[in-house]
Amino acid sequence: NAGVMQNPRHLVRRRGQEARLRCSPMKGHSHVYWYRQLPEEGLKFMVYLQKENIIDESGMPKERFSAEFPKEGPSILRIQQVVRGDSAAYFCASSPQGDVLYFGPGTRLTVL
Amino acid sequence: QKEVEQDPGPLSVPEGAIVSLNCTYSNSAFQYFMWYRQYSRKGPELLMYTYSSGNKEDGRFTAQVDKSSKYISLFIRDSQPSDSATYLCAMEKGGSEKLVFGKGTKLTVNP
Q1: What pLDDT, on the 0 to 100 scale, is given for residue B37?
Q2: Is any Cβ of chain A less than 8 angstroms from the Cβ of B101?
Q3: How far apart are the C-alpha atoms of B101 and A35, rounded to whole Å?
């Protein structure tokens, strides 16, 4: 059983561009979570999704950030008009029932 | 006061030492407690998961929870160089579905 997959692993964007981060959960997992890890900081919750539904987005910045988990295909975290402060590692996690989380390898976003 | 406090270290020990890693928390609503290990430039990997006060052992790892003191610990016996990583404590309130992490403690085990 493959683990949580994220791509790209590294993403470089210039200020003002869009960043799209993809996450494929483990097989059989219907719960997806996105966390952000800033340098020298712990992981911070961003959003929790189930298929076609956003369950909790209390950790998402109010502007420029959005997430989806469509019926078919991976979960997408989208950041519009990126700024330098968005540079971080973004981790996706999945869970079969919302208890134990299994994390992916992360996408490291660098904004120039 | 942050919800979860964790000494970032760094912590450096010789091979074979017993390592003690700790977190404190302020919110008594936390019911589930986890320890994750994160190697450099990798994703966090779950080590231990517990929801009650007391000890839980898994091989060389022991997780300890003291809800009355709002204090959790992870002990590593016979530490190995391969244990060198950042250790993150994480907690969850019942029904919340989101984890609150400590900043992580960076551990180096020297051969």
Answers
A1: 97
A2: yes
A3: 10
CB contact under 8 A, B43 and A43: no
Averaged pLDDT for residues A25-33: 92
Mutate to test the interface with B, among A101, A107, A109 (most CBs of B within 10 A): A101
Reduced 3-state DSSP string for B47-75: EEEECCCEEEEECCEEEEEECCCCEEEEE
Interchain contact B97–A (C-beta under 8 A) = yes
Tokens of B16: 């074979």
Judging contacts by C-beta atoms under 8 Å, the chain B residues touching residue A104 are 43
CA B23 to chain centre: 7
Residue B18 has pLDDT above 80, yes or no: yes
Q: Which residues pair with A37 in a beta bridge?
A: A43, A89
**A67: helix, strand or coil:** strand
State the pLDDT confidence band at A1, using cuts at 50, 70 and 90: low
CB–CB contacts below 8 A, A to B: 53
